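pinging the channel bc i need a second pair of eyes. not urgent but kinda urgent?? the chain im working w is below, pasted from the shared doc
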Amino acid sequence: MPAPRPLRDIAVVAFAQTDHRRTSDELSEVEMLMPVLHQVLAQTGMRTSDIGFTCSGSTDYLAGRAFSFTMALDGVGAWPPISESHVEMDGAWALYEAWTKLLTGDADTALVYAYGKSSPGSVRDVLTRQLDPYYVAPLWPDSVALAALQAQALIDAGDTDEPALAAVATRSRAAAAGNSHAQLRGSVPRGEYAVYPLRTGDCPPIGDGAAAVILAAGERARELCERPAWIRGIDHRIEPHGLGVRDLTDSPSTRLAAEHAGVFERPVDTAELHAPFTSQEVVLRKALRLDEGPDGGVEVNPSGGALAANPIMAAGLIRIGEAADRIRRGESDRALAHATSGPCLQQNLVAVLEGDPR
């Protein structure tokens, strides 16, 4: 059954991101974010006062203080008063909220931004706070250990092996050579095992970064951008919270989100997958049917993906922004963008973006 067409045509018309770095100790979140906000507004010629709705994504757990997103509003400018919202989630979900806001007709433009500074603390420990608080979190299994469990399940099922995972890392880093914003580029030192069977090259870098996009509806999008990246479908789903009741070699939530977003109606030529670990790309390729038949010209993670830069809370939004930029530059006509959050691909968002016929 074809996915229903949205009530309004809404597009990504601008995208900007930081140069992702291992650490940005000399910068506050606001100082890291402000240049990105200036860049994304400059692409459209708009000012903050021209934006109808603003939505952000971040997490207090990384910042180490409650309601930390209110301080980031200093970078946006909250006076005169603005229509604003926030999600304690990756910025891709903030984009989903902004998309629904524009669908209602309450606004014609939206600014979406996300940021994360992972360098000050131990990300592996912080992310345990996403786990079931009664049975799993008290055991303190960190994010890399849980990803290793998923990788081992894939190997045991015959879906991959260590050389295949190494090839994913090599391809991603090679693609990142053309991405000036990437944190890691070039050859992949396999290194020691982080947690067996994952080596350090199979894991994402820890780093700081921010990103922002501007959405616009209808003719306003065409006024602001020569070739808007139209969001033809977007959906997000979640797996059960308990890891023990899930098949870690599959991602039904990604497949269901893709079906509702209309991914399978026609082939895509680009796929930006939010796969922080090499093994997770294997799962996503299967769920999104990217490995069925011949390659078909689908370019997976031409930006390098999360293996090249993984600013937590912004990496998913960056996948949408990178896919949109390829459409705006004329390098893609129909792209898939994916974002995830939680352990072992627990929550998944899928969007389909298209450019106007050339």
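so The longest strand covers residues 208-217. and The chain is about 30% helix and 20% strand. — does that match what u expected or am i reading it wrong
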